[in-house]
Amino acid sequence: MGQSLVIQYTHIVFSTKNREKLILPSIEAELFDYLGGVCNEMDCQSLIVGGHLDHVHILCKLSKNVALAKLLEQIKSNSSKWIKTIDSQFSNFFWQDGYGAFSVSRGHVDIVTKYIGNQHAHHCDVTFKNEFLGILKKNDVEYDERHIWD
C-alpha cells in the first residue's frame, strides 16, 4: 500500500503538579483553548478539551506523524510557560510528569466528548483520583498506585 491511512482518537488525561487546584474558572476556557491549539498546531486535531481545577482531559485525533510522548511534551511545556505569563499567581504552575492516554473507537467519540464536556458536574461527586483510577480499570491498564501520584 503506497499510502498511510490512520485515524486514532486518543483521550489524554493529566493533572497539575501535586494536583494543586490551579485551573481557576477565570482562566479555564483560555487554557483549554490554548491546549487545543497546541494539539492543532501539531496536526493532532483537538475535538474537545475540558477538565476541572486540578486536571485536564483532551480528546484529539493523534497524527500519524507525531509520537504521543512528543505531543504531551509540547502541550505541557508550551502551556506551562504560557500560563505563567497570564498572572503572577501562576508563577509556580507546573503539570505532573506523567499522563494517561487511551484509544477511543469512533463509536465512542460522542460518549467521551460528552464525558469531557461534563467535568464540572462529574466532579461534584467524584475526585480526580477516583476518576483516573476508574479510567485505568475500565481500560484494563495495569498500574502501581504508588507511582501514579508522584
TrEMBL record:
Q: Which SUPFAM superfamilies match?
A: Transposase IS200-like
Q: Which residues form the signal peptide?
A: none
GO molecular function ontology, one term from the record: DNA binding
Q: Name one GO biological process term.
A: DNA transposition
Domain named Transposase IS200-like is located at: 8-119
Locate the coiled-coil region(s) and give their ranges.
Answer: none
Family matches, as InterPro entries: Transposase_17, Transposase_17_sf
Could you list the residue ranges that cross the membrane?
none
Task: Tell me the protein's name.
Answer: IS200/IS605 family transposase
Give the species: Cryomorpha ignava
